[in-house]
Amino acid sequence: MEADFWKERWAEGKIGFHQGVANEYLVAHGERLFGRVLVPLCGKTEDLAYLASRGHDVVGVELVEDAVAAFFAEHKLTPTVDEPWSDSTHRAYRAGVITLIAGDWFTATHEMLGTVNSVYDRAALVAMPPEMRVAYVAHLRKLVPRDTRGLLVTVAYDERQFEGPPFSIENSEVRAHYAHVEQLEEHVITTGRLGEANIDAVERCYAITI
CATH code at 44? Predict the structure, then answer.
């Protein structure tokens, strides 16, 4: 997906992927995450606040700066905003234990993110077509220590019936991307774009090791 696609979706309010409440898989399996948690392509997800409420430091990366600003505004937080990296257009929003980096995921650096102990991916991998998913995981490996653990949420459906995002990702691909994979749950999708289109789709939650 090109950057302009997501910027237009946010500008037009087409954010059906935004849940507004903490994700049920995160609530059920969040104890698998520890320390400082990275949330790629975080948007303004309520999961950021949920993770913070559970004692985690949180760092998110989000392309659309309006989404980053909206998160803090909706939670009545006043972040500090700066551009500490002279060779980058990324901006850092910080309030309490939450740091959100506004900018391109693929040019984010370890210096920007700082220490990461766990990864929570509900909306990043599924937002990308196949060729970008390979690059996404490769860049993730550059940003976090080897054997970092995390939670991953995916969807799977017949791609002849629906054009993503969210994109369909089968078990075999998930296992090809990560060092260790354990499927924790699977449920039929009845809401969101897929549910509204009456697509036969499932949502899966995995414990992963990167």
Answer: 3.40.50.150
What is the pLDDT confidence band of residue 2, given thresholds at 50, 70 and 90? low
Please count the residues of the chain.
210
Cα dihedral 134, 137, 139, 142, rounded to 10, equals -140
pTM over 0.85: yes
Question: 135 with 164: CB under 8 angstroms?
Answer: no
Question: Domain of 136?
Answer: 3-209
Which has more confidence, 9 or 54?
54
**For 60-99, how does the pLDDT look when each residue is reduced to its tens digit (9 = 90+)?**
999 999 999 999 999 999 999 998 787 788 999 999 999 9
Choice between 97 and 198, residue whose per-residue pLDDT is larger = 97
Taken in order 31, 32, 38, 42, is the CA torsion positive or negative?
Answer: negative
Q: Cα 69–103–205 angle (5° rounding)?
A: 85
Q: Total domain count for the chain? A: 1
Between CA 155 and CA 94 the distance in angstroms is 31
The rounded distance, in Å, linking the Cα atoms of 162 and 195 is 11
Nearest to 1 by CA among 100, 104, 141, 144: 104
207 and 184 in contact (C-beta within 8 Å)? yes
